[in-house]
Automatic annotation (TrEMBL):
Phosphoprotein listed as a keyword: no
Organism: Aquabacter spiritensis
Similarity-based family: Belongs to the LDH2/MDH2 oxidoreductase family.
One Pfam family cited in the UniProt record for this chain: Ldh_2
Keywords recorded for this protein, A-Z: Oxidoreductase
Keyword Oxidoreductase: yes
GO molecular function, one term: oxidoreductase activity
Protein name per UniProt: Ureidoglycolate dehydrogenase (NAD+)
Length: 346
């Protein structure tokens, strides 16, 4: 595939993932990141596109560049170990780009889990983490199970509130499998992610009632006006997001919500994340666990389907199929965004 855009049916032109990757690497090396760190960041952004998480793709690059210029993000930032026990790590990201910090933290957690059976790795003072399913899947592809949660600045309404008061509280769970590969659940605790709303806003699309509030805290069905996402399941979604802040920002000593709600115009307080990794070998035979995952997959796929349902999909299955298509055909990126990226790349 060349870097010449391919036409897309009713959407943005399709771009070569390899060209986009090289463009992102160039941008972040210009901003001061090492070539290795820039490639790590590009890997996550392009994976996000390939798996349909376009709101966590290269659309984030101009924002990351702006944060780097303002000092909110340090392109050269690296993890430091603040405290550790045999099965726990407290890591400070020192304002590093979120994907760079999270990949390093995941790899540390995987290595520690191999010797201790499991590891709780806490990451504080990072920046936007991107699609956290990427990190859970990274652990699962190494043969371990993982659960990742994250907290950050408030952009979602707490159930019953009319202002942004919680992050969208993402959670990702991945387990290694057999021949079919890992299972991955990656979701926000909002009905629609903020990135998804912004994608729809760019097309001036309509959204279902109950997805978001406007700037005045009123319900809206216009994506352009939907600036405050609403929680999935009302009090259930907001309750999960609240507890994720307790288990990440507060537990790591870097709370985000209370200081931000008290001083919304104050300095950015970054994000925090918790990466939990478990080695199946600590609980039994890894091969037996993989067989059980395959049996579970087969049992769910064999369930009787409702009328009109062609297939029952497991977590991550749709994204995996989309990846095969987008590797072959390209990923959608609008011309205006490509122009912004080209300008940043110099």
């Amino acid at each position: 595939m060349t870097d010449t855009p391919s036409p897309a049916k009713g959407g943005a032109p399709l771009r070569d993932p390899a060209h986009l990757h090289a463009l992102v690497v160039r941008i972040f090396t210009r901003l001061g990141s090492s070539a290795a760190d820039a490639a790590t960041l590009a890997d996550m952004l392009i994976w996000s596109h390939l798996t349909g998480r376009d709101g966590h793709g290269v659309v984030r690059v101009p924002w990351y560049a702006q944060m780097a210029r303002s000092g909110e993000l340090d392109p050269k930032g690296q993890l430091t170990v603040e405290r550790e026990l045999p099965a726990t790590l407290l890591l400070d990201a020192n304002r590093a780009a979120g994907p760079i910090a999270m990949v390093a933290a995941t790899d540390r957690a995987v290595a520690r889990a191999r010797t201790q059976g499991g590891c709780f790795a806490m990451v504080r003072r990072t920046t936007h983490t991107g699609a956290i399913g990427y990190y859970a899947l990274r652990a699962a592809e190494a043969g371990l199970a993982a659960l990742v949660i994250c907290s950050g600045k408030p952009i979602m309404a707490y159930h019953g509130a009319k202002v942004a008061s919680l992050p969208t509280g993402p959670i990702a769970i991945a387990v290694p499998g057999g021949p079919s590969g890992p299972l991955l659940l990656d979701m926000a605790t909002s009905i629609a992610s903020f990135g998804r709303l912004r994608q729809l806003a760019a097309r001036d699309a309509e959204i279902p009632e109950g997805w978001a509030l406007d700037k005045d805290g009123q319900p809206t069905t216009r994506a352009r006006d939907g600036v405050i996402p609403l929680p999935l399941g009302g009090p259930k979604g907001s309750g999960l997001a609240l507890m994720f802040e307790a288990l990440t920002g507060m537990l790591s000593g870097a709370p985000v919500l209370v200081p931000t709600l008290a001083d919304p115009d104050g300095p950015g307080r970054g994000s925090s994340a918790l990466i939990m990794v478990m080695d199946p070998a600590a609980f039994g035979a890894p091969e037996a666990f993989a067989d059980e995952v395959e049996a579970l997959r087969a049992a769910i796929k064999a369930l009787p389907r409702q009328d009109g349902v062609e297939d029952i999909l497991l977590p991550g299955e749709r994204s995996k199929a989309l990846m095969a298509t987008r590797l072959r055909e390209g990923v959608p990126v609008p011309d205006a965004l490509m122009a912004d990226l080209a300008a940043l790349a110099g």
